[in-house]
Amino acid sequence: PSIYQSVTTNTSKEMTSYSDYPFPDLFPNFLHNSKIMDYVRMYAKHFDLLKYIHFSSKVISIKKRSDFSSNGQWNVVVETDGKQESYVFDGIMVCSGHYSDPYLPLECFPGIKKFTGLYFHSHEYKNPEKFKGKRILVVGIGNTGADVASELSHVAKQVCFFKILFFNPTSVIHASYETFCIKFFSQCFGYLNIDHHFSSDHIGTKKRGISLSKIILVFNYALPLKLE
């Protein structure tokens, strides 16, 4: 899974649990991701839901039936072990989440081609082990950025934050979401020019500059399949 090993919920178990099945009293108030997995498995077992779940299966297509206007039903084709089967459902819920398609706008960093260190999206981060003794730049200070930077600070030589301070959303209030993203990143990330802020003597050197740049950015909002 695309989560870092130490990730813990930032909402309490009382606010996170299903109303019909509270977390066990022995569980901590803020839960490690392994506890969330335990809870989901306990919930499925308690309500005997596993018999309705098809594991290791791929949804090939989801289409409205010809009589959809009268009954609202869908045709769903699922592939398991190379074999496809068709099902009819009264309703469809796509619950894959919207943090699965990482967005890394490298074109916004003119100096990135000269940067000899490692850079990547937080989507790839799992644990701090391979970053011991590194100088690290974390771009963004959302929940993930703060978590990862804090964790890296225990092993890295230095951790620096880059945070967006200047952005006026009024100019894009009426724009589409795509246009909003383009304007947002062109305005915000235009302030970070690696080639400008770090001279060639600094880029990629462990002694003076940033030896590893960890870029924490956003995700594209996209469904993993098309509803027809």
> Structural class of the helix and strand makeup?
alpha/beta
What general outline do the C-alpha atoms trace?
extended
Q: Gyration radius, to the nearest Å?
A: 23 Å
Low-confidence parts: 166-211
Q: Name the average pLDDT.
A: 76
Number of domains: 3
* CATH arch. level architecture of the largest domain: 3-Layer(bba) Sandwich
Q: Helix proportion of residues, in percent?
A: 10-25%
For the secondary structure, the number of strands is 7
Task: Name the helix and strand elements from N-terminus to C-terminus, one letter apiece.
Answer: HHEHEEEEHEHHE
What spatial order of strands do you see in the largest sheet?
Answer: 4-7-5-6
Biggest sheet layout: 4 strands, parallel
User: What is the CATH level 1 assignment of the largest domain?
Assistant: Alpha Beta
Written description of the protein model:
Strand 2 and strand 3 (83-89) form a beta hairpin. The chain is an alpha/beta fold and 228 residues long. Mean pLDDT is 76; it is low at 166-211. The two termini are 28 Å apart. The strands form two sheets. It has a four-stranded parallel sheet with strand order 4-7-5-6, covered by helices on one side. It has a three-stranded antiparallel sheet with strand order 1-2-3, with no helix packed on it. 21% of the residues lie in helices and 18% in strands. The protein has three domains: 1-53, no CATH class; 55-96; 106-219, FAD/NAD(P)-binding domain, CATH 3.50.50. The chain is extended, with a radius of gyration of 23 Å. Belongs to the FMO family. Its cofactor is FAD.
